[in-house]
C-alpha cells in the first residue's frame, strides 16, 4: 500500500513547494517548520488506517461516546535529517514513544556503499504499530536495514514508513524487501544522481535543516 500526498490538491503542496524552493529553503527555521507541517499532515492521514474502538468520556455535563485509536503507535527516526519531520508526527501522536537510530553510508573505494547502523535506542516493539519517519527515501537501503534489524528482534504488528520525498528506485527497493510495509509519502521523484541524491528532490535535508557537516 502506498499513499502519496501530492496526488491530491491540498495546502500541503504549498509546504512541499517551499521545501523544494532553493531560495525559500535558505531560511532554516522555515525549512524545519515545513517538514513539521508535512509530518503532521501525513500522520493525520495515516491515523485513518488505524483500528478504533469506542470509549466513554465523562464531561462536566454527561457522558460522550468517542471512537479512539485502539493502539498508540511507536515512532522511529534515523538521525539527523528527519528530526523535524518526526516532530510533526509527534504533534499528532503525542503520547507515542520513539525509536532513535544512528546510521550512515560507509562508502567503499569503488564508490558503492553499505549502511552502517551504530546505535538503536528502542522500547519493546512486540505487537506494536511501528512508524519509521525519514525526510528522504532515496535508495531505501538505510530504511530496509534498520527495519530488518528491528524486525529480527521484535514481532512488529504493523510497519509503516513515512517520507517527505521518495525516489521511484527507493520505493521499489523498500517494496521488494519489506513487502508488508505501508508507505506514506508526500511526493515521489523519478531520478537520482550518481551519489544517490533525489532529482529534483530538495538537496541535502540534514544540511538545510541543521547546517553543513564538517
From TrEMBL:
CDD domains: PRTases_typeI. Keywords: Glycosyltransferase, Transferase. InterPro entries: PRTase-like, PRTase_dom, PyrR_bifunctional. The keyword Transcription regulation does not apply. It comes from the Bacteria. Residues 12-211 form the Phosphoribosyltransferase domain. GO terms for molecular function: uracil phosphoribosyltransferase activity. The keyword Transit peptide does not apply. Its EC number is 2.4.2.9. It is an enzyme of class 2 (transferase). PANTHER family: BIFUNCTIONAL PROTEIN PYRR. This is Uracil phosphoribosyltransferase. It comes from Mucilaginibacter angelicae. The lineage of its organism: Bacteria, Pseudomonadati, Bacteroidota, Sphingobacteriia, Sphingobacteriales.
